[in-house]
Design a protein that fits this description.
With 264 residues, this protein is of the alpha+beta class. Helices cover 29% and strands 10% of the residues. The longest helix is centred in the last third of the chain and has 15 residues, at 239-253.
């Protein structure tokens, strides 16, 4: 299947590297064994066996056949880490974090989970076996969302399908708090700030209505920090259109003003 310039991926890569999509590259080493003299192990990356390739990545040198000396291996330069160097002076786990932007001091997932408490300081909740980085479920969700890890955790309650106040709160990636409930295998959710405004108004929100956080903090859902906004606007700029739109808005938000005008 063509991917670029009408060529398949293999021929396109040959063109980028050699300027000729039909150029046939002949390896300078045995295609089945390591290219290091005296090493008969099966090759892996860059023509080296797994051991010599790991040595090349870690030190930039291949060296003679045989085990990698401890002095050459070295230890990860990240404070508190006792793993062997893999690349750029770091072990494989910390090197991968440095490349992806994950904090180096975050707990490293062990090879096999064991029972114990959450890795976050001061949290006595049990860590979940399937939760990453040794956190409990609540702190793992906060870690993913980038929200305050030290904020109080609201414990789960028995959920009433008709009352979102009893649903489980969780932080979203966008920084909002979402109320979640599972009913008959079906997931229900609503943003907490929208639910608080619905309670204040005593009705569901219209599709054109949004809730704005006054102080800009998306997880501060105190009713005094919430404002009702609407994106609705008149169809045109004619006076008749504006008057009709004004009557519609008053009927929705201030019906008592229309009643007073009718009496006058």
């Amino acid at each position: 299947m063509a991917t670029a310039r009408g060529w398949c991926d293999k021929h396109y890569r040959r063109w980028k590297k050699y300027g000729d999509p039909l150029k046939r590259v002949t390896p300078t080493y045995d295609s089945n064994t390591c290219s290091v003299d005296g090493c008969e192990k099966r090759r892996q990356g860059r023509g080296y066996c797994a051991m010599h390739y790991a040595r090349f990545v870690a030190t930039g040198e291949v060296g003679p056949p045989g085990p990698i000396p401890k002095a050459v291996q070295g230890k990860c330069e990240v404070k508190g880490c006792t793993r062997n160097v893999r690349a750029a002076g770091m072990c494989g786990a910390h090197y991968a974090r440095a490349r992806t932007g994950i904090p180096l001091d975050a707990p490293i997932r062990p090879a096999r989970w064991e029972d114990g408490e959450c890795a976050h300081h001061g949290c006595s909740r049990p860590k979940e076996r399937k939760a990453a980085r040794g956190y409990c479920g609540a702190h793992y969700q906060r870690f993913l969302a980038g929200t305050d890890m030290d904020a109080a955790i609201i414990e789960k309650r028995s959920a009433d399908p008709d009352d979102p106040d009893t649903w489980a709160p969780q932080h979203t990636v966008g920084g909002y708090i979402e109320l979640v409930c599972a009913v008959g295998g079906e997931r229900r959710q609503i943003k907490q700030h929208r639910w608080e405004m619905q309670k204040r108004l005593g009705r569901p929100l219209h599709p054109d209505e949004t809730v704005h956080h006054v102080n800009g903090k998306r997880d501060d859902n105190r009713i005094e920090n919430l404002e009702l906004w609407s994106s609705r606007h008149p169809k045109g700029q004619r006076v008749d259109d504006k008057v009709e739109f004004a009557i519609e808005m008053l009927a929705r938000y201030r019906p008592h003003l229309l009643n007073e005008s009718a009496k006058d």
